[in-house]
Specification:
197 residues; mainly beta; five-stranded antiparallel beta sheet; 15 strands; 10% helix
Length: 197
């Protein structure tokens, strides 16, 4: 079997339970494509695509899931909720079966018969960052608290810095310095900030 980098690997490799090393398959013409899935059914869709012989890659992170009112526990969650990646040869594989797979909402495409391939370097980058196994979304939660200087890593305020005023485990309010010398308060998701090194 070939992994996403095209290397042979034995069956039952080192992937964690619930996640397998993504495979592009042995066909040299296969490329990666983005699949939109129903929220909460990403793993189910991944399994169904693999059963049909398509390569499938569901990037995962460790997050918190509510198991019952007032009780949350760590779980492997989709890094991009509602999306995963699949590999096929547009010219040879019967790829149209993907859109009829239970849980699939569609393929990213410019037209119904023309899915858009994901550049291989982007999939390789996700693999290099460890998304083929669950990784912690917030590896140092104790460092995000009032008074700590934080950098915004994503969104409209990416690369800006501010001081944490409060957080509620989902959101963080930052006091940020503006270019004109003023200050403003913004609220961003907790996963979009990290402590300033």
């Amino acid at each position: 079997m070939l992994d996403a980098a095209g290397n042979d690997r034995a069956e039952g490799g080192s992937a964690l339970p619930g996640q397998r090393t993504p495979e592009c398959g042995s066909h040299p013409g296969r490329s990666w494509y983005c699949v939109q899935a129903e929220r909460g059914r990403e793993a189910e869709v991944r399994d169904r695509l693999e059963e049909q012989g398509f390569g499938a890659f569901l990037p995962l992170v460790i997050g918190m899931r509510t198991v019952r009112p007032g009780v949350r526990q760590a779980a492997a969650l989709p890094a991009f909720p509602g999306y995963l990646f699949t590999a096929f040869d547009l010219r040879a594989d019967r790829w149209r079966a993907i859109v009829y797979t239970r849980g699939v909402r569609g393929l990213f495409s410019t037209a119904p018969d023309r899915p858009i391939a994901i550049p291989r370097r982007q999939i390789d980058a996700l693999l290099a960052l460890g998304y083929d196994r669950p990784i912690a979304a917030d590896p140092r939660p104790e460092l995000i608290k009032a008074g700590v200087r934080l950098t915004v890593t994503d969104g409209l305020f990416a690369d800006a810095e501010g001081v944490c005023l409060w957080d509620d485990r989902k959101r963080v309010r930052l006091l940020m310095d503006l270019l004109n010398g003023g200050r403003c308060e913004v609220v961003v998701t907790r996963s979009a900030v990290r402590p300033v090194a």
